[in-house]
Amino acid sequence: MSIIDIRNLSYAYSNGTKALDNITLQISNSESVAIIGQNGAGKTTLVKLIKGLMKPLNGDVIVDLFNTKNYTTAQMAKFVGYVFQNPDDQIFHNDVYSEITFGPRKIKMKEKDISENVKWAAELCNLENYLKENPFDLPLSIRKFVTIASVISMRPKIIILDEPTAGQDKIGIETLSKIIKILSDKGHTIITISHDMEFVAENFKRTIVMANKKIVADNKTNEIFWNEGVLAEAMLKPPHVLKLVKECGIHNKNLLRFEEIIDYFCEKIK
Ligand SMILES: Nc1ncnc2c1ncn2[C@@H]1O[C@H](COP(=O)(O)OP(=O)(O)OP(=O)(O)O)[C@@H](O)[C@H]1O
């Protein structure tokens, strides 16, 4: 069943800038989906409409059977969690614990569930040692995890991550992969906007490509990255490992993730 059902959605900002042009899209419950595309393609506008931060000009955004047109952002907060691209647009408390606890309190979660979920979110995001710190004294990479924890502590069915790998080193990216896997295993629907093609290739089976305010492709991630026409249209490059595979004259669409490629070469050497 689709947890997100978007039909003929168009949007323009109040200054007249058209940001989305006739988008139709369904996302199933518990799916993990990546959205890729050049700057200005319309990715952030699309997820803000799913979150209910803005209302469609034309078309409908139906989330968990609720049409966002008929509900306030506060009412939608229980269902959709959105982690902003820039953590400083999201954080507003003077200590990490208060920041992570704010959301669950706001949606009136039971006290017992609040402490359980806050503990769980802090552990998942490796924040146990920072709970008393002022988030603004912490580096960007950790502030990002504070914002992720403050969203997942509400346990929304749908979790949107906007550019989660920006500012992360290898360990941070591995932690993000682990978080996405755990949330997905627990049945959350994950939507991630990313410019990091390696991260998309490694973590998402389905990828949506946006260009010029439209969806230009929506397919299995390996089909997307092996499709040179789609990548050219959206002005995107495939992950580095795929370039290497192609340069070796190999044409095997099942190869995309680093481990798959290593296994392939190991087999060949044998
Ligand atoms: N608040 C705003 N007011 C006016 N125009 C906006 C606003 N926010 C975005 N836009 C415009 O809407 C279009 C889509 O922008 P959007 O931020 O959704 O793209 P994006 O694909 O998320 O880009 P990025 O990867 O840079 O975040 C762009 O032309 C952008 O300049």
UniProtKB/TrEMBL annotation:
Protein name from the UniProt record: Energy-coupling factor ABC transporter ATP-binding protein
- This protein's source sits in the domain of life called Bacteria
Q: Per its UniProt record, what CDD domains does this chain match?
A: ABC_cobalt_CbiO_domain1 (cd03225)
Instruction: Please give the InterPro entries that the UniProt record associates with this protein.
Output: AAA+_ATPase (IPR003593), ABC_transporter-like_ATP-bd (IPR003439), ABC_transpr_CbiO/EcfA_su (IPR015856), ECF_ABC_transporter_ATP-bd (IPR050095), P-loop_NTPase (IPR027417)
Family, per entry:
Belongs to the ABC transporter superfamily.
One matching Pfam family, short form?
ABC_tran
Domain ABC transporter: where? Answer: 4-237
Q: Which Gene3D superfamilies match?
A: P-loop containing nucleotide triphosphate hydrolases (3.40.50.300)
Keyword list (alphabetical) reads: ATP-binding, Cell membrane, Membrane, Nucleotide-binding, Translocase, Transport
In alphabetical order, the GO MF annotations are: ATP binding
